Amino acid sequence: MARIRRARGLDLFDQSFAANFRGKLVSGRALYDEVIQGGLARAQKSVWIATANVKELFIERPGLGRRRVASVVGLLAELHARGVELKLLHAELPSRRFRAAFDRHPALVKGGLQMKQCPRVHMKAVIVDGAWLYLGSANFTRAGLGMKGDDKRNFELGFVTEDFELLDRVQAMFDALWRGAPCASCKLVAVCPDPGGYATGSGRA
Question: What is the pTM of this model?
C-alpha cells in the first residue's frame, strides 16, 4: 500500500515547490532498463501507473528461447499472482492489442489489474511499492517504455527517484484522481466514460 502523508491538505492539482532530491535522469533505452526491468519487474507490494495512452509493449523475459520477448501483460499477471496491487490510470482506451493480451489473463480481467479512465490524465508516472518513482514524458507504450528499436523509439525524457517528498505528492495526486476527487467540479464529466471514483469491475479494458 502506498504511503501518503505530508501531501494531505495540499491543492494537489495546482502546486509548485522547490524540489531538492537525488535521482537519475533517463532517456532512450535506459527508460526501458530503469522503469520496466529495474522498477516494474521488481515490485513486491504495489504498482501504480499513470499514462495518457496504453498500448501493447514487449519486454525481455527469461526462458522464452529464441522469442526472447513477451507482452508486459504477462508480467503484470505474474505480479498479481504474487499479491502485488496493480492500478492503471489512463486517458485513452487501451489499444486493441493490449486489450487482446489482457483478455488472455482472466485473473487480471476479474480485477487483478484495476483500471480507471480519466480523459484529463496526461501525466506519466510509475510508482512501485510506494517507495520508487518514475516521472517523465513516456507513455505506457512500446515506443515510450517498451522494446522498440533505437532507431524507432520515441525521444522521451524522465527521471527515477526514491525521494519521499516527490513520492508523497505524486501518490496523493494519483490517489485523488483514482477516487474521483475532481469529478464534482469537472467540466468534462458529462462526456467522461468513467466518472467518479474507481469501483470494482468498472475499470475493465
Answer: 0.91
